[in-house]
Amino acid sequence: MKNLYIDFDGVICNTIEITYKMLEESGIDVNDQDKVTEFYQNLDWSHVLDICKIINDGMDNIKKLERSGKFNIAILTHVNSINETIEKVKFIRKYLRDITIIPVPKAISKTKMINARFSILVDDYIVNLDEWKAAGGIGVKFDLDMDGKGYLVTSHLDELLELF
């Protein structure tokens, strides 16, 4: 059984799309890292998760992956605050009662929290995949346009059943 880690933002839910729009509406320059960090730390994550959409039946597809018995599955998500962690856990638990959820402080690489060697990471952010690969893991790019940028690519999580 392979270890499978699935990112949350931009893979399971469209929170990236929503928060980038909110940043723009707030007039915050995305290149001003201090302001962006402050924005995310103070964001009302309950509201964001109330208005977000699940991408391509992500929760149902994770259930399919669980039923297959092929993977040890965990949600591996970067977080900017305790509030974000709490709200993401509450949101995920509405759909997936028994899945492991691993919040990773934004300032730390996911590879510092998890032994990536021989494990699969599905993520939409290429930097995370590059770090994962460098640590001996298997990266899968989640991309609705199916542009893997050199990685295996999927736009539906249940496609992992065919890839592995």
Describe this structure as you would to a colleague:
The chain has 164 residues and is α/β, with parallel strands linked by helices. The chain folds into two domains: 122 residues, Rossmann fold; 35 residues, no CATH class. Helices cover 43% and strands 20% of the residues. It is built from eight helices and six strands, in the order E-H-H-H-H-E-H-E-H-E-H-E-E-H. A six-stranded parallel β-sheet has the order 3-2-1-4-5-6, with helices on both faces. Helix 7 links the parallel strand 4 and strand 5. It starts with a strand and ends with a helix. 32% of the residues are buried.
Defining traits:
six-stranded parallel beta sheet, alpha/beta, single chain
The stretches of 5 or more residues where confidence is low (pLDDT under 50) are none
The CATH topology assignment of the largest domain is: Rossmann fold
Query: Structural class of the secondary structure composition?
Result: alpha/beta
Q: What helical percentage do the residues reach?
A: 40-55%
Mind summarizing the main beta sheet? 6 strands, parallel
The CATH homologous superfamily of the largest domain is termed: HAD superfamily/HAD-like
* Order of H and E elements: EHHHHEHEHEHEEH
Determine the number of helices (DSSP H or I, runs of at least 4 residues).
8
The number of distinct β-strands equals 6
Domain module count? 2
CATH class division of the largest domain: Alpha Beta
CATH 2nd-level architecture of the largest domain? 3-Layer(aba) Sandwich
